Amino acid sequence: MKNNKSEETKDLQTLMDKVPDHLFIKCPVCEENFYNKKLGEYKLCPNCGYGFRLGAQERINLTVDEFTPIDSEISAPKRFLGDEKYAGKLEKSKKATDLNESVQTGFAKIGDTEFALGVMDSRFIMGSLGTATGEKLARLFEQATERNLPVVVFSCSGGARMQEGIHSLMQMAKVSQAVSDHAEKGLLYISVLTDPTTGGVTASYAMEGDINISEPHTLIGFAGRRVIEKTIQQRPPKDFQRAETLLKNGFLDAIVKRDQMKSVLAKLLAWN
Amino acid sequence: MVKAYDRVLAARSADKISIQDLVAGITDDFMELHGDRAYSDDPAVYAGIGTIAGQSVTITSIQKGNDTDENIERHFGSAEPSGYRKALRLMKQAEKFNRPIINLINTPGAYPGMDAEYKGQGYMIAQSIMQGLKLKVPYISVIVGEGGSGGALALAVGDTVWALEDSIYSVLSPEGYATILWKDSSKAAEAAEQMQLTPKELLDNEIIDKIIPEVKDAKSMQNFKEALIEKINELNKLPKEELLAQRHERYRKFN
Ligand SMILES: [Zn+2]
């Protein structure tokens, strides 16, 4: 009986291997396998509610009624492009995302409410914080300050962009300063931390919102898991650096499922 | 010419002056103040009030240990959220009493521990940067040895940022850089050459404003102290709006 079962499993596995990958999807959080049609337009795991990663444009389409991009042409400064490997990565990312940097910025509307919107794209060199990423975000906050508009930023990032070295680190200061100027004028900033938000982005504008919200099971942290494991010589638990843990520890205002995000943002924007 | 990695080793050298000796050397008198007022007192952050040439100043610093025990206690100069909370508390206090702030930095980076993450490492660094940029008092940061990543930046958003001759300031360690880009941490020396982390390169890139001759004797200590006094006097003369406008320009220009 036991033997039969294992053979049956083996057969199933062989069958599964022949099925095109994209038909079935495995949730990286709960590890449930499911038919891709069950993902739906919001790309949610039907079992645990985890939101699969979205490109910036997809996110914008799902979240706002109108969007007018600004500064789309801004990309990594020429002085970095001598590094051929980096230049190649940039080209590949541009093709994959249809963006010139790891964040799309512009002005958006939900209903009649206008606000400034920044959405990072994790497919663009891991959503890392390049000089141009920082420039676009700083300009977004500056323009919102000038026009008395609230700002919403959807972060997702592997952190600083190694290839731009210390210049990447300086973006944390530059953007934080623009956030602070915006705050001093009494304007609202909602930070939405999406999967994954780590490193220098967590240690700057993603954690500077008046309201910081996230999606279920989002990875949020400063240090990388591997660095931590190496330092403390033990494995952190499964819920380590997940949104639910940050909520419990007091670092998030709320966890909002992706299909509720638009209505929650509309409400918060209206109340402020 | 000194190779970049030699500078890395010098910045990390056990012979490097300790932060406590540096503070004792530049102040006439100094009293350490403790605690983050939330739950802890991080020994990696050494902070307090003192006087320099009669002028009261607040000093906050990130320090390594002088021996193994101290290093273990201070996580080899890696601060926890509690340390940043203490530093920020004392910097805000300096603002209240209109005292200049001097931050001395020797850290390989913020501590990568589980508890540090649970207690909001990212959040506290973010707040230190954002609130630090707006402090309405003269704010001088000095990279003394290692200036590691966001953990250093948290205390390095002042009106002017200096670096000791044997110091480095970078987005991550050369070992980490080599691991990420080439999957080989033994290529740290090669990484150091690429990273532009030496004081000379940092000055050329306007990341820092001044290189301070290495403090290793009474004369170089006096030189450092005089440079601080001169800068404090200069910044003290600026109207607050001008001080903040100049600081704003300093960080806005990184594009
Ligand atoms: Zn799931």
Automatic annotation (TrEMBL), chain A:
<comment type="pathway">
    <text>Lipid metabolism; malonyl-CoA biosynthesis; malonyl-CoA from acetyl-CoA: step 1/1.</text>
</comment>
<feature type="binding site">
    <location>
        <position position="48"/>
    </location>
    <ligand>
        <name>Zn(2+)</name>
    </ligand>
</feature>
<keyword id="KW-0479">Metal-binding</keyword>
<keyword id="KW-0276">Fatty acid metabolism</keyword>
<keyword id="KW-0862">Zinc</keyword>
<dbReference type="Pfam" id="PF01039">
    <property type="entry name" value="Carboxyl_trans"/>
</dbReference>
<keyword id="KW-0443">Lipid metabolism</keyword>
<comment type="subunit">
    <text>Acetyl-CoA carboxylase is a heterohexamer composed of biotin carboxyl carrier protein (AccB), biotin carboxylase (AccC) and two subunits each of ACCase subunit alpha (AccA) and ACCase subunit beta (AccD).</text>
</comment>
<dbReference type="InterPro" id="IPR011762">
    <property type="entry name" value="COA_CT_N"/>
</dbReference>
<keyword id="KW-0547">Nucleotide-binding</keyword>
<dbReference type="GO" id="GO:0016743">
    <property type="term" value="F:carboxyl- or carbamoyltransferase activity"/>
</dbReference>
<comment type="similarity">
    <text>Belongs to the AccD/PCCB family.</text>
</comment>
<feature type="binding site">
    <location>
        <position position="27"/>
    </location>
    <ligand>
        <name>Zn(2+)</name>
    </ligand>
</feature>
<feature type="domain" description="CoA carboxyltransferase N-terminal">
    <location>
        <begin position="23"/>
        <end position="272"/>
    </location>
</feature>
<dbReference type="GO" id="GO:0003989">
    <property type="term" value="F:acetyl-CoA carboxylase activity"/>
</dbReference>
<keyword id="KW-0067">ATP-binding</keyword>
<dbReference type="GO" id="GO:2001295">
    <property type="term" value="P:malonyl-CoA biosynthetic process"/>
</dbReference>
<dbReference type="InterPro" id="IPR034733">
    <property type="entry name" value="AcCoA_carboxyl_beta"/>
</dbReference>
<keyword id="KW-0963">Cytoplasm</keyword>
<dbReference type="GO" id="GO:0006633">
    <property type="term" value="P:fatty acid biosynthetic process"/>
</dbReference>
<dbReference type="GO" id="GO:0008270">
    <property type="term" value="F:zinc ion binding"/>
</dbReference>
<feature type="binding site">
    <location>
        <position position="30"/>
    </location>
    <ligand>
        <name>Zn(2+)</name>
    </ligand>
</feature>
TrEMBL record, chain B:
<dbReference type="GO" id="GO:0006633">
    <property type="term" value="P:fatty acid biosynthetic process"/>
</dbReference>
<dbReference type="GO" id="GO:0003989">
    <property type="term" value="F:acetyl-CoA carboxylase activity"/>
</dbReference>
<dbReference type="GO" id="GO:2001295">
    <property type="term" value="P:malonyl-CoA biosynthetic process"/>
</dbReference>
<comment type="pathway">
    <text>Lipid metabolism; malonyl-CoA biosynthesis; malonyl-CoA from acetyl-CoA: step 1/1.</text>
</comment>
<feature type="domain" description="CoA carboxyltransferase C-terminal">
    <location>
        <begin position="1"/>
        <end position="234"/>
    </location>
</feature>
<dbReference type="InterPro" id="IPR029045">
    <property type="entry name" value="ClpP/crotonase-like_dom_sf"/>
</dbReference>
<keyword id="KW-0443">Lipid metabolism</keyword>
<keyword id="KW-0275">Fatty acid biosynthesis</keyword>
<dbReference type="Pfam" id="PF03255">
    <property type="entry name" value="ACCA"/>
</dbReference>
<dbReference type="InterPro" id="IPR001095">
    <property type="entry name" value="Acetyl_CoA_COase_a_su"/>
</dbReference>
<keyword id="KW-0808">Transferase</keyword>
<keyword id="KW-0276">Fatty acid metabolism</keyword>
<keyword id="KW-0067">ATP-binding</keyword>
<keyword id="KW-0547">Nucleotide-binding</keyword>
<keyword id="KW-0444">Lipid biosynthesis</keyword>
<dbReference type="InterPro" id="IPR011763">
    <property type="entry name" value="COA_CT_C"/>
</dbReference>
<dbReference type="GO" id="GO:0016743">
    <property type="term" value="F:carboxyl- or carbamoyltransferase activity"/>
</dbReference>
<dbReference type="GO" id="GO:0005524">
    <property type="term" value="F:ATP binding"/>
</dbReference>
<protein>
    <recommendedName>
        <fullName>acetyl-CoA carboxytransferase</fullName>
        <ecNumber>2.1.3.15</ecNumber>
    </recommendedName>
</protein>
<dbReference type="GO" id="GO:0009317">
    <property type="term" value="C:acetyl-CoA carboxylase complex"/>
</dbReference>
